[in-house]
Every structure is written in C-alpha cells, then in structure tokens.
Amino acid sequence: MLTVNLVPILATPFAVVTVPQAAELNPTLAPFLRERATAERADPAFRADPLCFRSREDLFDWPETQAVALQQALLAGLCAAVMDANSYSPGEFGKLGIQARARYAVVRPDGAIPAATAPLASWCAVYCVAAPPASPARVDSAALRLYAVRSGMTFIDAANWRLRAPFGGDHQIWRPVPGQMAAFPASMLHEVGLNRSGSDLILVMLRARFAQPGAPGLPPW
Fold first, then answer.
1. Given 3-state DSSP classes, what are the helix, strand and coil percentages for the chain, each rounded to the nearest 5?
2. Pick from 13, 39, 154, 217: most CB atoms within 10 A?
3. Cβ distance 70 to 29 under 8 Å?
4. Taking residues 80-100, what's their average pLDDT?
5. Where are the domains positioned within the chain?
C-alpha cells in the first residue's frame, strides 16, 4: 500500500480577535476619531486624499481616555494571537518586550488604502471601529485584502492551480466587523479595497515587534 504523509509547511498565521471591550469602546471611539480626522493630524508621508484620511502613527501616544483604553485592548488582543501562534509558555511570553505604533484611518465612500507592508515590525493588526454594510454587488467592498506573493515565483500548471486548503496560494479577504481585529505577519502585502458604500469605514492599524529579555535594542522606527 502506498503511504502519503501530506502536511502544510511555510503556513501563514492569520487571527481574528474579538475585542471584549468593543461594545463600550466603539460608540465613543468612532466620533472621537472622526473629529480628529483633520489635516493637522494627517500623516505627511501620504499624499492628501479627500476620500481616505490616514493619521500620523502616534495614536498610542495620546493621553485621552479613549486612546489609552484602545491601546490596552488592542495590545492584549494582539498578544493573545501572537502567543497562540508561537510555542512560548505564558511565563516566557510575558517576559518579552513589545513596541507598537498605531494610526487610524477613515475610508470614505469611493476611498481605499493602497497595498503596503508594515516595515520594521513582525506583526500587523487592523481593528474595525465602524464599518459600512456589505455591498451586494462587490464582496470585496471596504474589505482587507491579503496578497499571496509566493505564487509569483511558482510555475503554475494543472497540478497546482487549484490546491485544496490549506495548500492553496490564493489571495484572501477579510471583511472588517466592528469590534473585531485581524492580526497577521507584518511582511504580508495588504490593502483596503474600494469602499463602494455610502458610509465610512473607520479602522485602527498597528504594527508591533517583540524582543527577548536582555536582547540588543531594536532598530528605531
């Protein structure tokens, strides 16, 4: 009898975290961030776009109650996801140092966020504060798209173009749901698709990195 031991390798972790504090956070967080989506707080690294506001990456530095509570909730959720993807014990993981930077984005109707990776970080997370209703015409409206880039270096033929999960190399989408956060490796190319609805999508986007205790300092952001 022929024996085949088929296992996935080089798998990419992707986690969806339901933030338990969301029911209390989001009703006040949405107007709080909308009011601050101003030119003064926009990140000058991005071209001004009336359809998509992206703040400076200093949200976790704000002293306001909403920002502090958001930081605590999102870092707790991200740490839970990262620990689940690793082989650290809770005690070992608790000794790791974490650094994180965060910005918020308001994606207005007909707006989008171009594809990018998160530099100088190991993990990226996208938290949904408010989301428009799903578009019946476009399933990827205002969705987070995650691109599989390995297939660009793969010879495609009839034997690998429709591999079953988890072996396929298809791009993936995640529809933002208020109160949920997606976490994935920062090296993944990702974007937010065109918002084809009549209302705003409000996201908090963070990148994070972890350090072993006693390890040399991490490079500056």
1. 25, 25, 50
2. 13
3. yes
4. 96
5. 15-208
Question: Measured over all CA atoms, what is the biggest interatomic distance in the chain, rounded to whole angstroms?
Answer: 70
Dump the DSSP string for 108-150: -TT--EEEE--TT-SEEEEEEEE-PPPPSS-TTTTPEEEE--G
> Among candidates 154, 140, 129, which has minimal Cα distance to 190?
140
How far is 47 from 89, CA to CA, in rounded Å? 43
Q: Which of 197, 42, 208, 58 is nearest to 130 (CA)?
A: 197
Residue range 15-208, CATH number: 2.60.120.620
Q: Six-digit token pair at 211?
A: 């350090």
Which residue, 157, 186, 193, 154, is CA-closest to 172?
193
Binned at pLDDT 50, 70 and 90, residue 152 comes out as: low
Task: Write down the pLDDT at residue 151.
Answer: 67
Mean pLDDT of 89-112: 96
| Inter-residue contact 207 to 118 (CB < 8 Å) | yes
Q: Check if the beta carbon of residue 204 is closer than 8 Å to that of residue 129.
A: yes
